[in-house]
Structures are given as structure tokens and as C-alpha cells.
Amino acid sequence: MSPRAQDPNESTDDAVWQDLVARLEETPSSELPERPSSDPAPSAEERVRAIFEAQRTPTPAGPRDHTAPDDDDDGSFRPPEPPALGVGDPLVVLAWVGAVGSPIALVLIAMFWRSASSTMMLGIVAIFIASVTFLIFRLPKTRDYDDDGAEV
Question: Cys-Cys link to 128, which of 69, 75, 102, 105 (CB 3.0-4.6 A)?
Fold first, then answer.
């Protein structure tokens, strides 16, 4: 029978704790201060207290403690103002409205205006095709292979 089955009211926490302390005393630890062999073995509380006192000592500086040297940076850099959203080539903006708005218009017409004429549908499809064709022809003709995209 297991010890727990013999007496259900008895706690095995003390036995487990003593076993843990005994195993910890067997393994040497570099964090604990060395005691002379004539002193009795330290108690568990003394060992825990010694570990926490060793952790309170200042640690050497790590990579997050690095401070950058002061260069000519006076902190006055201000990025340029971005252009307004409405500023741009009007034909490109109109082409994007046609390329994105045409499929949305076709879906809305199919849902809410079932009796729309086929001429209107073909006109919206033609606007979509013309817009996408215009945007494709506006793409750059050559590729700069030396450019990695970074801009300073």
C-alpha cells in the first residue's frame, strides 16, 4: 500500500520537501558561498536566502543597457509633410476608381437593380477593361536591377 492510502489525513508535503532539499544538497551549486567543512550543512532557508542575496548583486551590462554615442544628432529631424490624398495624376485616380468601382457596381446592380439594361452592364464592363488596360500600360517598361527599394 502507498503511504497516502494508509492515512488520508496525513500530508506528504513535508516528505516531498525533505526529499527535494536532500537532492539539492547533493548537487554542487556555483551560486552558493562555500562553507568550511566544520560547519553543519545549511538549512533550506539559509540556502534560499543565499541564492536571493546572490541575485541582488549587480549584473554586468547587457546589450539592452547600451547607449548610443552622441553624434551630430541634435534631435531636430522632422520628416517632410506627406502629400494630400487628393493630389495625384487625375487620370490614374480615375482609372483606379474605374478598376475598383466597376466590379462593386456590378455586384450592387445584380443585388438591388435586377431590371438594369444590358447596355449599362456592358458599359460598366467596358469601363473596367479600359481602366485596367490604362493602369497596365502605365507600369514601368524597364526594371532597375541595382535598386533594392531602400530610400534614405
Answer: 102
Q: What is the Cα–Cα distance from 51 to 70, expressed in whole angstroms?
A: 39
- Calpha distance 121→109 (Å, rounded): 9
Residue entry with cell 468601382: 101
Q: Look at residue 1 in the predicted model and tell me its pLDDT.
A: 47
How many of the other CB atoms lie within 10 Å of CB of 128?
Answer: 18
In sequence order, the 6+-apart residues with CB closer than 8 A to the CB of 95 are: 131, 132, 134, 135, 138
Residues 130, 109: Cα–Cα separation, whole Å: 20
Top-confidence residue, 27 or 13: 13
Distances (CA, A) of 105 to 75, 99, 121, 125, 126: 50, 11, 9, 10, 13
Residue boundaries of the structural domains of the chain: 14-54, 90-137
Handedness of CA 85, 89, 121, 125 (dihedral sign): negative
Q: What is the pLDDT of residues 97-124, one digit of tens each?
A: 999 999 999 999 999 999 999 999 999 9
